[in-house]
Amino acid sequence: MRLDKLLSNMGYGSRKEVKKWLKAGVVTVNGHVVQDDKTQVDPETDHVQFQGVTVEYRPYIYLMLHKPQGVISATDDAREMTVLDLIDPEHLTYNLFPVGRLDKDAEGLLLLTNDGKLSHALLSPKRHVPKVYYAEIEGLVTEADVEAFQAGVILDDGYRTLPADLKVIHSGEHSRVELTIVEGKFHQVKRMFKAVGKRVTYLKRIKMGGLALDEGLEPGEYRELTEEEVQLLQG
Fold it and tell me: Which residues pair with 72 in a beta bridge?
């Protein structure tokens, strides 16, 4: 890997800024000052230091974001605020992308990473990774709805969903539920309730695979996953 790319990816500035640091002579590789930004290094074996501090190479990064309402699950948009607009520059150097999506008006757990292999595994229809949502529903949610979701409901395009686990927290004119699905069709939760004559008024994803939303994160806040949490997702 080029030295300037390594330093940029590790959050030491843009390629242009890194080039200035190199010319200033504050970067060493295996104990020798290196000023050429095109120098090739092996991040796994070469000892790179910046101003005397060892550069710790991490090829992948995993962030848990509590996505707020009104923000879209995209990397770039000319008109709308995206989830990457919530991320600090030190993490943006990793070329992050969201794993899947949450509707603009939904909130909750969204994983951001640069690990394409893990993202593919979590989103693959063959894996049936469970996603758990808390939802508030306009309309009386009944046991008949629970049975219908378990059997799979037919969406507006004729697609029958895979079995879903619907738990009723409160049933009334305005119901509260918890729903677990193992697929990710466009606006799926809303369309499932529409199929049984009801409307979702609030939607929050609280879990994906073995990863649960950190209750300490306010909407718009994020943190890096722990090693244990990464292993949960990889498992």
Answer: 82
78, 194: one domain: no
Q: How many CB atoms lie within 10 A of CB 59?
A: 11
Which position among 4, 36, 88, 103 bears the catalytic label?
A: 103
Note the pLDDT tens digit of each residue in 140-174.
999 999 999 999 999 999 999 999 999 999 999 99
What is the Cα 101 distance to its own chain's centre? 8
Q: Region of 167 please: left (phi>0), alpha (psi -120 to 50) or beta.
A: beta
Q: With CA atoms as reference, report the closest residue to 129 among 235, 203, 208.
A: 208
Identify whether residues 177 and 218 lie together within a single domain: no
**pTM exceeds 0.70 for this model:** yes
| Whether residue 177 is found in the same domain as residue 223 | no
Query: Does residue 103 have an active-site annotation?
Result: yes
| The total number of structural domains that make up the chain | 3
Judgement on whether residues 97 and 195 belong to the same structural domain of the protein = no
User: Side-chain half-sphere of 125: how many Cα atoms within 13 Å?
Assistant: 4
Q: Which domain holds residue 176?
A: 131-208
Radius of gyration of the chain (CA): 22
Question: Judging by DSSP bridges, how do beta strands 32-33 and 211-212 pair with one another?
Answer: unpaired
226: amino acid identity, one letter: T
- 135 shares its domain with 170: yes
Residues 6+ apart with CB under 8 A from 11: 89, 90, 91, 93
